[in-house]
Design brief:
transport; transmembrane; Transcription Regulator spoIIAA; single chain; glycoprotein; phosphoprotein
């Protein structure tokens, strides 16, 4: 049997095994794709049920007002926030591998979706300044299926249907959500989870804080009852605050007073919760109390009709029929879905791993990407927008005894009850109350500003990354802020590798340890040997930096030294010739010049490679050139403490000669061994020269 036929047989066997459908294989695939099938049959009812039910109920109670509120950010009617929360919890219950993560609407995702929705709604011709909340008279007409108003409502044709402003808004949100989910699933299929490693913690932190500033700005108009259109394009924060102050005289006093009362109650509740969290077994349902009280006050006080306060409007019960996302919109929002997909899976995977580590179990990042992808793809058919894991709700689940994702099922049931029975009761809820809930929820993110001095003291580079990401996100736009943050963060890493710490080493007393002479006291530099440490990989981008720092540290640049040597030789030769000609003598000038060469302060450079993780072909060529150039001026170059990857690269580039014949005289396992070899070789050479 020939080798080629043997390989063909092995390939056929692997394909057969991979494509064969058997009972155990189907079961294994099913359990991998739906982890609930694996853990639910092993559910410890008596041990887990109380914690799961309690945490599920509490998160559900918190989720309902937030679901309604975050729709203001997303630019869609409140009912769609409830839909999103319901479907996301159900799907993650089936597919997630984390026991504690709470997946649902998230303020940052809602803001990013809202930016896309408002842009597309504006480009479709709808009036952004229009208050879409119907008046009681319009609601009466809507109930009778009549329209007595003279002004026809603007509609846009999409997939053969005429859509109004709200319907078109959720169509845009569903389209961008579908694409974000598809991107996430593709990332899981092609194992692209490594992309998240380029989202550094300071960059993400700064991005989230900048987005929080934008969220606060976008919601500020509701606190004052101002009907200002949401700004399109760059500089949302600056332009929006300018518009707010330009229209400050139009402030609705009813909304302002309501906002002040609600913020006071919400902040007080949060402060009490933070101060007495060890004594309180469950979080205070402050948001629900505020929503219930404000709704009753608005309803019986008739704030909408008497004071023209903007309210949530009619929220229908039940579910709307599923609908395929509008593919005609997708080309316009394809790029917008990329940052949504990346941020959503980055937050979900990082939170999953964080709580898994805390509780001593493991999660599968790739399955988490599939789960969050399907939490976006499937609900997009049911008029939902982009979801992600949320830190605040996850921490609430963890602190209230959550054991498994059964708690997500309980939270979904709470949302279902609201959808089926209680949604219409929120009709009179003022939008300023929802804005208060959103703004108070940003307390944690906005408090990050207080940590800037500590960040600066800990790491200036990280503090600068945080400030750049935060400023770009807040002052330019959320999407560009993310891009600028990533690029700047990566640039800082490149800058660090191009300008790493370099040092000359000295010996610690009489032991075989060498350290930085600038960092430690009482170190002794070895006689006539320079030990140089470069703390970065050596590759094409920092080759010049390596050479400059080496030349500066040892004080000898071989090219310049060689040039000086040749000039001195020529000068000495010319002088000797002139003198010999005058005296009528004949002299061997080459021998004479060789005897008068100036001796350098050191004879060997030892390169401590312990802090060089890898080198590329350019780095290997740099080492080769160094050995050759310094050899021409009478200086040896030795390597010490190289790791295996560096040694492999040097061997492949024949740095040690053919068959590694010079490896024993160029490479040493310790710096001390290299120093001993250098001194021994120098003594031998000196003895030979004395004989000559």
């Amino acid at each position: 049997m020939t080798p080629s036929s043997n390989h063909t047989a092995i390939l056929k066997s692997k394909l057969k095994n991979g494509l064969t459908c058997s009972g155990p294989k189907v079961r294994s695939t099913l359990m991998g794709f739906f982890p609930v099938v694996r853990w639910l049959p092993k559910y410890k009812l008596k041990e887990y049920i109380w914690g799961d039910v309690m945490s599920g109920l509490i998160v559900g109670i918190i989720l309902v007002p937030q679901a309604i509120a975050y729709c203001l950010l997303a630019g869609v009617p409140p009912i769609y926030g409830l839909y999103t929360s319901f479907y996301a919890n159900i799907i993650y219950f089936l597919m997630g591998t984390s026991r504690h993560v709470s997946v649902g609407i998230f303020s940052l995702m809602s803001l990013m979706v809202g930016q896309v929705v408002v842009r597309e709604v504006f480009e479709a011709g709808f009036d952004l300044n229009e208050d879409s909340t119907p008046s009681p008279h319009e609601l009466f007409n809507e109930t009778l299926d009549l329209n007595f108003t003279d002004k026809p409502e603007l509609t846009v044709e999409l997939m053969g249907m005429q859509l109004g402003k709200d319907s078109y808004a959720i169509a845009v949100a569903a389209a961008v959500t579908f694409l974000a989910g598809v991107y996430q699933i593709l990332m899981a299929v092609f194992r692209l989870g490594f992309v998240s490693v380029y989202l550094s913690a300071p960059m993400l932190d700064g991005f989230a804080t900048g987005a929080s500033v934008t969220i606060l700005t976008v919601q500020a108009k509701y606190l004052l009852g101002l009907k200002i259109p949401r700004h399109q394009g760059y500089g949302t924060v600056v332009v929006t605050w300018f518009n707010i102050f330009a229209n400050i005289h139009k402030t609705n006093l009813c909304d302002l007073i309501t906002s002040a009362i609600c913020i006071a109650i919400l902040v007080a509740g949060k402060e009490i919760q933070d101060r007495y969290k060890d004594r309180l077994k469950i979080p205070l349902p402050t948001e629900l109390v505020v929503v219930a009280g404000a709704t009753l006050a608005s309803h019986f006080g008739e704030f909408n009709t008497r004071y023209h306060s903007s309210v949530s409007g009619h929220i229908p019960t039940g579910f709307t029929p599923p609908q395929v996302p509008a593919f005609s919109i997708m080309p316009r929002v394809a790029l917008d879905a990329i940052p949504l997909a990346v941020i959503s899976f980055a937050f979900t995977v990082s939170l999953s791993e964080m709580f898994a580590k805390k509780h001593g179990y493991s999660v599968r990042p790739n399955q988490e990407m599939v789960a969050i992808g399907l939490c976006n793809v499937v609900p997009s058919f049911f008029h939902c927008f982009t979801t992600s894991a949320a830190l605040a709700k996850t921490m609430v689940k963890d602190s209230t005894g959550c054991q498994t994702q059964v708690s997500s099922l309980i939270s979904a049931l709470v949302v279902l009850l609201v959808l089926l029975f209680f949604a219409p009761y929120f009709r009179a809820l003022q939008k300023c109350v929802l804005a208060c809930i959103i703004i108070v929820s940003l307390r944690g993110a906005l408090r990050k500003f207080r940590d800037v001095p500590a960040k600066w003291r800990a790491s200036r580079m990280d503090a600068i990354v945080w400030l750049v990401a935060m400023s770009a996100t807040a002052l330019i736009s959320v999407e560009l802020g993310l891009l600028i943050g990533i690029v700047f963060s990566m640039s800082c890493i490149i800058y660090k590798t191009q300008n790493p710490k370099v040092s000359l080493l000295g010996r610690v007393d009489d032991i075989d340890l060498y350290e930085d002479v600038e960092e430690y006291k009482n170190l002794t530099a070895p006689s006539r040997v320079k030990i140089f440490r470069f703390q970065a990989p050596l590759y094409f981008a920092n080759k010049n930096s390596f050479l400059k720092s080496l030349y500066k540290a040892v004080g000898v640049e071989p090219f310049l030294e060689l040039t000086k040597k040749k000039k001195a030789e020529k000068k000495e030769k010319d002088k000797s010739k002139k003198q010999a000609k005058t005296n009528g003598e004949t002299t061997n000038f080459d021998v004479f010049v060789g005897l008068v060469q100036k001796e350098l302060e050191f004879h060997t450079i030892v390169l401590d490679c312990s802090a060089i993780p890898f080198i590329d072909s350019t780095g290997m060529a740099t080492f080769k050139a160094l050995v050759k150039e310094y050899e021409e001026v009478g200086i040896s170059v030795l390597l010490a403490c190289c790791n295996t990857s560096v040694i492999d690269a040097l061997q492949k580039g024949e740095f040690f000669g053919k068959n590694n014949k010079d490896i024993s005289s160029l490479l040493f396992y310790t710096v001390h061994a290299a120093v001993l070899h250098a001194n021994r070789a120098a003594e031998e050479k000196k003895a030979e020269d004395s004989v000559v």
